[in-house]
């Protein structure tokens, strides 16, 4: 009746804190780009060993058991000779499974037990099918193995696949694989690939898990340059029961993660007769085909795995959440988090050198940017929420005595002070936040965050629009901002580092004795302009940095207002 527009409720899905998302994505990318090759190579090696073992067992069928045992001992001796030749030890398991351990007869150290599984693969034995053939039995070869350990020592894992170097330390990123730790690392790789796909594509969980073999296509230019990475999958939200096949445009890291998933899932997919990229990787009987909701457990297991393998109690790889407990990851959090970051930090860095802008362009270009996807609307909603959060920061800093600079400082300051006066918060008491958000909503809608100044956009007075060739622009042209002249510009304390860097760089150039006089005058004026800006933010703090004051005075470069 009052004509108020309906505003959908705020998304209650929590954003993953940046302190958690940054290392989580960084390690996920590391698994996909650095560790995946080792994991896939180890699986190929294990498959070859099992195929060779099966062939040896088939060749020995019908032979006398004593003859078979003799051949097994001969193959064991050949295996030990190969270890000796390459300077390696008898394999032991990576961890003490089921609490079983061994005590080293020479050092007395307690270690995981001997990896008889790997030894049996080389000797051509299936101890599960024929327990009597176990080499650890008295009728097996415990004497040969004990002698080999005394000579060669032991080696954790024992598989031949070499381990690549960690990009940070230059050391192997883990010990050699064995048949128990390899399936774990495969699941961790699947989880890492999910995080890369979910966070960098903006796709929903149902859309990600609908991806199948061959879903990735690449568009190239005539010279072979890659123009687009496209994902074909199925969208379900708002669609009929069977969903609707659609395409997404994505970025290179997601394409690399999909390539890894295609190789990782091939074995399980072939065994189960499915082409999904998300099969349950273990081939045990009575397990479901698709990972589905189990991915949530895997994601949190991946978080714990990173902390256990690469961190410590004092310095975890993935820090705890705000409540001091491990942050519980869910599939919905990734889309919400990337939408917020694209809306509020379009030029920020995600991980390494990947930019939010790159993800934003890709997400908007394909289906994810269309009205059917809802992703554009979700980003706009996050941008509106981000504007409210930013204006509340302005309010809180103003209440704490912070000063504003720039032509719009007085206008913004009056609105903030009026809100504070109407709310009349007591000292050391936070104002009524919901009411404050409502009071400052109009001001927040005009706020656009910038690197040198924030713009409280008013198209009637915006200088950037006078210089723009785009008629009818609905927002500011941040790249054409004139922060010391435009009536919409407001400079806050958080802009100080950028202005100070500009002053330091100008002073550095002024130290050049061969600098032409016109350039010297221009740089002096620039330093004076920056000092006036810094004085507006915090009087008395606009002093030369990096110990340059004395040198400038000696060179006759003293700058005043």
From TrEMBL:
Residue ranges of coiled coil: none
Record keyword DNA-binding present: no
InterPro entries per the UniProt record, alphabetical: DNA_brk_join_enz, Integrase-like_cat_sf
Key words of the record: DNA recombination, Plasmid
Cited SUPFAM superfamilies: DNA breaking-rejoining enzymes (SSF56349)
Highest taxon above the source species: Bacteria
Region (Disordered): 540-561
GO biological process: DNA integration; DNA recombination
GO MF, one example: DNA binding
Protein name: Integrase
Species for this entry: Sphingobium amiense
